[in-house]
C-alpha cells in the first residue's frame, strides 16, 4: 500500500470516528474490550502532550523573533562534530524513540554538522531535548 493510500485510509477512519455520537463510540470501544473512560484519559494525555510540545515550539520561535540578535547565530561556532556527537549520544540512549534518525533513514549518508545542529535545535524547541551547558 502506498503512503497516499494509507493517508486516505487513516483520514477515512478518523472521519468515521469523528462522525460517531459519544454513545456509538463508547459501544465500539466496549465491543473491542476497551474501557471508554480509560481510553478518554489516555487520549487526553496524548493530546495534552502534543499541545504542550507545540506551545514550547511556538515559545521558542517567539523568543527568537522578539530578540533576533540572540538567535541561533554564534560568533564562534561549536567544535567540528560536536553537534553530531551530542545527537549520537541522545539517539544511543533512546534508540526506540528516534528510529527515523538512523543512518539507514539517511540513505547511508553521514549527517553534516549543520544538519545535526539544526536537528538538535528542533528537538530543543519541541522540548524533547533539554538545553544544557554541553550542547553546541
Structure, explained:
The termini are far apart. Residues 102-108 have low confidence and may be disordered. By secondary structure, the chain is an all-alpha fold. The protein is built from five helices and no strands. Helix 4 packs across helix 5.
Poorly predicted ranges: 102-108
Spatial separation of the terminal alpha carbons: 41 Å
Radius of gyration using CA atoms only: 21 Å
Arithmetic mean pLDDT: 75
* Percentage of residues in strands: under 5%
Q: Helix-strand pattern, N to C? A: HHHHH
Count the strands?
0
> Helix/strand-derived class?
mainly alpha
Residue share in helix: 55-70%
- Biggest sheet, in brief? none
Quickly count the helices.
5
Anisotropy-based shape: elongated
Short description:
The chain is mainly α and 136 residues long. 61% of the residues lie in helices and 0% in strands. The chain has helices spanning 3-19, 22-31, 36-66, 82-93, 113-125.
How are the secondary structure elements laid out?
Elements: H1 3-19, H2 22-31, H3 36-66, H4 82-93, H5 113-125
Note the main attributes of this structure.
136 residues, elongated
Amino acid at each position: 500500500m502506498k503512503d497516499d493510500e494509507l493517508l486516505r485510509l487513516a483520514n477515512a477512519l478518523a472521519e468515521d470516528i469523528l462522525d460517531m455520537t459519544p454513545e456509538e463510540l463508547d459501544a465500539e470501544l466496549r465491543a473491542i474490550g476497551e474501557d471508554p473512560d480509560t481510553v478518554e484519559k489516555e487520549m487526553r494525555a496524548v493530546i495534552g502532550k502534543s499541545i504542550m510540545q507545540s506551545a514550547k515550539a511556538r515559545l521558542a520561535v517567539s523568543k527568537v523573533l522578539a530578540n533576533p540578535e540572540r538567535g541561533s547565530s554564534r560568533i564562534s561556532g561549536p567544535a567540528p562534530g560536536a553537534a553530531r556527537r551530542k545527537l549520537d549520544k541522545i539517539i544511543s540512549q533512546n534508540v526506540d524513540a528516534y528510529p527515523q534518525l538512523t543512518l539507514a533513514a539517511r540513505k547511508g549518508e553521514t549527517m553534516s554538522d549543520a544538519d545535526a545542529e539544526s536537528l538538535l535545535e528542533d528537538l530543543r524547541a519541541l522540548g524533547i531535548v533539554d538545553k544544557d551547558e554541553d550542547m553546541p
